[in-house]
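Posting for a labmate who doesn't have an account.
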Amino acid sequence: MNKTALRKYAHLIAKVGANVQKGQCVTVMANVENPEFALMVTEECYKLGAKEVTVEWRYTPLSKLHYKKRSLQTLSEIHDWEIEKLKHREKVLPVLISLAGDDPDGMKGIDQEKVSKSSIAVMKVTKPYRDRMSDRYQWVIAAVPTKAWAKKIFPNLRTSVAVEKLWEAILFTARVNEDPVQAWEDHNKNLGDRCAYLNSLGLKELRYRSSNGTDLKVGLIDDGLFLGGGENTLSGVYFNPNIPTEEVFTSPMQGKAEGIVYSSKPLSYRGELIDNFFVRFENGVVVETGAEKNAHLLEKLVSMDEGARKLGECALVPFDSPINKTGILFYNTLFDENCCCHFALGRGFNNTLKNFENLSFAECKEKGINDSSIHVDFMIGTADLEIDGVTADGKVVPLFRKGNWAF
């Protein structure tokens, strides 16, 4: 891949995505296959005035080996040094840059019961630290190809060609082929304008219908807001948490969802794929799930904790989004969730509430934001999806027709 294009992408991640400020500390999380690009991102952070950049490496085969060889008790333990690291992160609030690219099938074959139980134990300890850090620091997730991921998407191509093709798709969807900084300024304005219109309607409910069987009503929070594109930390630093992004989203009223919704794309979860699945809600809670592939894994997902059986996000994405137009199934939520409309099970977003900065975490929950140790997006958008918004006085406003914006 052309190094000039990669440098532009690295600058986009550091400047527009993370918006690193002078004197800030930065943590870059990268795959061991991508040292050169991790170096580029680190350099761009220093150019923006970062005080210190730390790189943490990931390697899926090593993680898989740990899950296979360690006992449940060992996997569930949190060491003192890990607690100290969380305390340090809470104190320093480093900018977090995650360069995603894991193998979609990388954890296939592991004992999911062991993973589930150990994850629950670990998150009971780590969640309070993460909650206290919420909305106080910049973060961004962007993608970098790995060989296994590229071959999953392009199985009939040589590995080197597959990686190059995946790079091309990533740079296209991230708008790097244009003037990326200006392109993202324009894109954020477009998403912001759509949010402003939706927020002016005073919606109380969203109604979803599709020929695949989806028929779902979702209640909204009175003080809820639709957001999209960039957002601000509590200290006022603007950043873009996802590169790419095409969504406008809100957190629904926890406990208010009735009906059934069918997936439109596979969900990559814990290194395995859940495919052709449905989720049925009663009184806002998941009461039934089913899937053609890995149904047991879907049931473990919604059993992680009480909040995992409730919705935390409703995201509106046109079916003709640039990502969907590539015709590629990425097997990666960062991209596939931006192909079409999606929901998320689990944790909601406090910043979708008006004046959330003046509310405690507990007060956000009282207003209707769902709380959970997980936040898992799954895609439900189709070419014929219809979504209506219902206002407080019962007026029905078309929001989506034939899978795309109706306004």
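Reply:
Got it, the structure tokens are right above this. The mean pLDDT is 95.
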